[in-house]
Structure formats: structure tokens, C-alpha cells
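Quick one, probably user error.
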């Protein structure tokens, strides 16, 4: 099974796609592959750049043992020559180091005809196991979980690294930080990190910018780990330098906030999305629920006095800080299985099976959420500014900016 993301020019179809990507591969298979189409020629990109982002995805206190030995060995298969994109599709392969280190998974995940000796039938509540088995007619949950696994996000992060590289040429920077872990959360109104403080965020054990909240989060993780349980949380993605005019009000599937919500919700275990202070302002009166607009004569631009709308109005970016939050549920796989379920063969009550798992993956999810925001913004920037080459893309963006306000 593959994952195709095609972001459209207008309603009803995929003609005129500006940027799309396709991922393939399973969690314990030989490799993951991602193919990107629609990037301009001349974009500098290297394996080392992509590996930096891949390494960030493995960060976070509470990760399982796989992160300690999993190495993302990347190969740029096509679309790049001498460190620059050619304008043709880019193909990136991410080898599964575990596959090549031992033969543990060679028979179980072999593409050759055969059958498993150990089918998984004690399906996990909250996971794709049972629904996927019913939908596709499988009798072994591994046929579902291998693709449903968050390991697939490694391929997305590789694509996101390329999208971030493109956006950097028009002054856009994207980062994330954890604002809640279990019951521990960053206080309302606490300072947000800026791009020059990304290293400080990544160096924190839970990728939290607030040190006091970080300590409380670590305490939550330790307590859950002791009980063999898992934790969810919330991350905040911040987009700096996002230009005015990405997205549109004219079609439901062109609205930037709608595209961002769908992209974030596609991340494994994410169950909620918030743009700006969407949930909080729902309880306010209209007189205090919107960002006041002013004119900055020195800068020659309109400004908003707050970020309640999260940098979008009417489905269009307004040039202010983009704020997107993602809520991740506690992982469905527990180190001490206690979730009540049914064996799909015997129909007897039991507890769900255990796969190698994390106590929490919230810090890593933040990096994946950055990826999804970057892919949406890169697509919309390509749609807005266009260009077959990077120089043309940048020139078009600068020309548009010169026409404002």
C-alpha cells in the first residue's frame, strides 16, 4: 500500500497539481521510499540536510529501544545532480537498518509467496488493526500494522526536509515545541521559541521550551513508564515569515487552514487540530475574539495585534505568525498490555498483543507536524508564485511582495 498526497489547484480532481509526494514501504520491510514531484530546478539539497531532519524525528525522552539503534541510511535515487534539483521527480530511499543487521524480519516480511507462522490476532484498541483487517479481508493484523505504523513518517520527514529547503528561499522558517505532555503543560501566555532558539528546543529532553514545564513532563513520562503505560500530548507548530496570500477563500479545498488541518490529522495518533487559539476563542465574545489590525508606517505593512487566528483569515495566510497545534492520543501499544480486546480467531476476551513501543512519541510528532505544515506551505507557495526554476520562484515571490500592501 502506498500513500499519495496530491494537493490540488481547484475543486474536483488532481489536474494541475503543484507539488505531490508518494511514500511506500512497511515498518519492518527493507526500506521506505518517497517520490516528490513539482519542485523547481536548481534547489540546493543534500543527503546531509535531509539526515539532520531525520535525526530530529528520533528525539525525545520516552522513546523506545528502536530509536537507539535505528539509523536512517538515505540515498537520493533520482531528481538531484551535483547537489541541485533537476525539476524532475525526486526519489529518496530510507533503508531499514534492522533489516540489514539481522535476518529477523526476512521471512516474516518477505515479498515472496508464503505465509506467516505467527499471525497476530489479539487486535489493539485504538489502532488500525481490526478496522483494517475487516476492510481488506486480512486475518493477520501485521498486514495492517506494518503500514499503519508511524515508521512511515520517516519518509514524510525526508520529503518535508526538501519542502523546508524550498521555503527557506522565500524567508519561511518552521519549528515546533511541546506544550503539553499528559497532565503537564506550558502555562498560558508563556514565551514562544523563535527559529534561532531551535537548538535549545531540540536539546531539551521533551522538546519543551519552558524548563519548569519540561521537568513536570519528564515526571509524567517516568510515572507512565513505571506502570507500563503511555502518554499523549500537544505540540505547537510555528511558521515564521509566511507570506501573505497562500491559500484561498474561493473553494473549500483551497483554504489554507483546511489544508493544514487535514495534513496534521493524517499523522498517526493525532486526534485534534487547532489553528491559533481556535478552541479558546470559541468561548469568548466576538469583541475579544479577533486580531486587531493596524498600519505600521515604518514597515509599510498591516499588522495584527495578536495571533488568535493563527496567521490565517478566510482560508488565506495574512503574513503573521502561523500557529498550528496538534493533539496526540496516548499510543495504543502498551509495554504492559492491559487493554481489553477480542482474539479475532477464537472470539475470546483477552488483552491486546505487544509490539515494541514508546512511552510517548509526542516530541517526535512535533517534527512530523513541522513536515506536514512545510509540505502544505510549499505546495501553496508553488501555486501562488510558480516557476520552473528556483530563481524564477524567488523572483515571482519578491515581485508579489513588492505589490503589497
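Nope, works fine. Designed sequence:
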Amino acid at each position: 500500500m502506498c500513500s499519495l498526497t496530491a494537493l490540488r489547484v481547484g475543486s474536483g480532481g488532481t489536474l494541475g497539481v503543484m507539488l505531490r509526494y508518494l511514500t511506500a514501504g512497511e515498518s519492518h520491510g527493507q526500506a521506505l521510499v518517497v517520490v516528490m514531484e513539482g519542485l523547481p530546478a536548481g534547489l540546493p539539497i543534500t543527503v546531509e540536510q535531509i539526515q539532520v531532519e531525520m535525526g530530529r524525528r528520533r528525539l525525545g525522552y520516552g522513546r523506545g529501544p528502536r530509536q537507539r539503534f535505528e539509523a536512517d541510511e538515505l540515498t537520493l535515487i533520482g531528481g538531484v545532480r551535483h547537489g541541485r534539483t533537476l525539476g524532475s521527480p525526486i526519489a529518496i530511499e530510507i533503508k531499514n537498518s534492522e533489516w540489514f543487521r539481522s535476518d529477523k524480519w526476512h521471512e516474516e516480511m518477505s515479498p515472496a509467496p508464503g505465509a506467516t507462522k505467527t499471525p497476530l490476532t489479539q487486535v489493539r484498541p485504538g489502532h488500525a488493526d481490526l478496522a483494517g483487517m475487516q476492510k481488506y479481508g486480512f486475518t493477520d493484523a501485521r498486514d495492517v500494522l506494518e503500514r499503519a505504523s508511524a515508521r512511515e513518517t520517516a519518509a514524510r520527514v525526508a520529503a518535508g526536509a526538501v519542502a523546508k529547503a524550498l521555503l527557506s528561499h522565500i524567508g519561511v522558517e518552521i519549528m515546533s515545541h511541546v506544550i503539553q505532555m499528559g497532565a503537564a503543560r506550558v502555562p498560558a501566555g508563556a514565551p514562544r521559541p523563535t527559529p534561532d532558539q531551535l537548538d535549545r528546543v531540540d536539546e531539551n529532553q521533551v522538546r519543551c521550551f519552558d524548563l519548569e514545564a519540561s521537568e513536570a513532563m519528564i515526571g509524567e513520562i517516568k510515572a507512565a513508564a513505571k506502570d507500563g503505560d503511555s502518554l499523549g500530548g500537544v505540540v505547537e507548530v510555528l511558521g515564521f515569515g509566511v507570506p501573505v496570500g497562500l491559500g484561498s477563500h474561493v473553494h473549500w479545498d483551497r483554504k489554507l487552514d483546511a489544508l493544514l488541518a487535514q495534513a496534521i490529522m493524517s499523522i498517526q495518533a493525532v486526534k485534534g487540530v487547532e489553528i491559533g487559539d481556535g478552541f479558546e476563542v470559541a468561548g469568548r465574545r466576538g469583541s475579544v475574539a479577533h486580531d486587531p489590525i493596524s498600519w505600521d508606517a515604518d514597515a509599510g505593512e498591516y499588522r495584527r495585534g495578536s495571533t488568535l487566528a493563527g496567521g490565517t483569515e478566510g482560508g488565506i495566510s495574512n503574513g503573521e505568525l502561523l500557529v498550528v497545534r496538534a493533539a496526540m492520543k496516548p499510543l495504543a501499544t502498551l509495554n504492559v498490555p492491559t487493554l481489553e480486546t477480542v482474539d479475532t480467531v477464537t472470539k475470546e476476551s483477552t488483552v491486546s498483543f505487544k509490539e515494541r513501543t514508546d512511552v510517548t512519541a509526542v516530541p517526535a510528532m512535533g517534527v512530523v507536524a513541522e513536515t506536514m505544515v512545510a509540505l502544505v506551505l510549499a505546495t501553496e507557495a508553488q501555486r501562488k508564485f510558480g516557476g520552473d526554476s528556483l530563481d524564477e520562484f524567488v523572483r515571482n515571490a519578491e515581485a508579489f511582495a513588492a505589490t503589497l500592501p
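The two ends are 46 Å apart (CA to CA).
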